[in-house]
Design goal:
By secondary structure, the chain is of the alpha/beta class. The protein has a domain of 207 residues: 3-Layer(aba) Sandwich (Uracil-DNA Glycosylase, subunit E), CATH 3.40.470.10. Helix content is 44%, strand content 8%. It has a six-stranded mixed β-sheet, with helices on both faces. α4 packs antiparallel against α8. It is globular.
């Protein structure tokens, strides 16, 4: 329907005392207002109601606008958004990486660690940096405190007597060593004073310097559980100290939301070979197996129990 254009407004009279002119002027204004008082089109009313329900309009970049019925796509992020996510560093999730991608990233990280010189006194005394080894897609990760003489010589973790016992523990769990991952808090063997042999406990400042390397390993591997071997490894992972093993073991702790079981170091069992001490470690491993839903046989449950 063709709409008539409203007549021009009658100017307000210069003489306000002229009542008749003022009445005519008011009638003219009312007639013009009626021309624009028809109901708004349906689409317009819907938009107005939507705006009322949503409150104030927020300013949105034209790059993020889309049709109201369009479904969000997982790849819809702009390059700038993706870069912002990745710029968070260690905090971004690596859960979606394939095993080959994890392996490649661990290899690249290993190359960085092998040339680390953050602790000059350890660089001067070490033979090899002991980065760690195992399955880059492992559900379970064992963490020791530092390399010993055998590990320093071979550049591999837990290859001495304590390492051989750890391998037996892993196999008793029904796993293979190449199915899990093994690393240390410290990547270099702690140096010893001249004329002294053996191993010393890593110092807090040494562990604080080296722990970022381990954090990157854990972030890449994304294990479902960590086992801290010994109080020193627990101190390095969980902070605080000195920790008392009897207060720490047989219950779950957390390292950056990953469950941590603290147990005795295999070297402790080499010095204390009673069934009761072996049973303590095995009870901790049973808890780990239950957490990872590894089947446990009746025979396994009875390991190291007194006959």
């Amino acid at each position: 329907m063709q709409r008539n254009h409203p007549p021009p407004l009658i100017p307000i009279m210069q003489n306000p005392s002229d009542l008749a002119d003022r009445v005519d002027h008011a009638r003219s204004l009312l007639s013009q207002m009626r021309l624009f008082s028809e109901p708004a089109p349906k689409a317009t009313r819907q938009v107005l109601e939507r705006l009322k329900s949503k409150g104030p309009i927020k300013k949105t970049s034209s790059k993020t606008l889309s049709h109201p019925d369009a479904k969000a796509s997982p790849d819809a992020s702009s390059p700038s958004q993706k870069e912002a996510t990745q710029s968070q560093g260690d905090s971004f999730s690596t859960a979606s990486l394939s095993k080959e991608e994890r392996k490649a990233r661990l290899a690249a990280l290993r190359e960085e660690v092998l040339v680390c010189t953050k602790c000059p006194h350890l660089v001067a005394s070490r033979t090899n940096v002991v980065f760690g080894e195992g399955n880059p897609d492992a559900d379970l990760m064992f963490i020791g405190e530092a390399p010993g003489a055998d590990e320093d010589a071979q550049g591999k973790p837990f290859v001495g007597r304590a390492g051989q016992l750890l391998t037996k523990i892993i196999e008793a769990m029904g796993l293979r060593r190449d199915e899990i991952y093994i690393a240390n808090i410290l990547k270099c063997r702690p140096d010893m004073p001249d004329g002294k042999s053996g191993n010393r406990k890593p110092r807090p400042e040494e562990m604080a310097t080296c722990i970022p390397w381990l954090k990157q390993q854990i972030a890449l591997i994304q294990p479902k559980a960590l086992v801290a071997l010994g109080a020193t490894a627990a101190e390095g992972l969980l902070g605080g100290g000195p920790l008392v093993m009897r207060d720490m073991r047989s219950r779950w702790h957390a390292f950056e939301q990953i469950p941590v079981m603290v147990t005795y170091h295999p070297a402790y069992l080499l010095r204390n070979q009673s069934l009761s001490e072996k049973r303590k470690v095995w009870e901790d491993m049973l808890l780990v197996m239950e957490h990872l839903r590894i089947p446990i046989s009746k025979k396994q449950r009875s390991f190291f129990l007194s006959k």
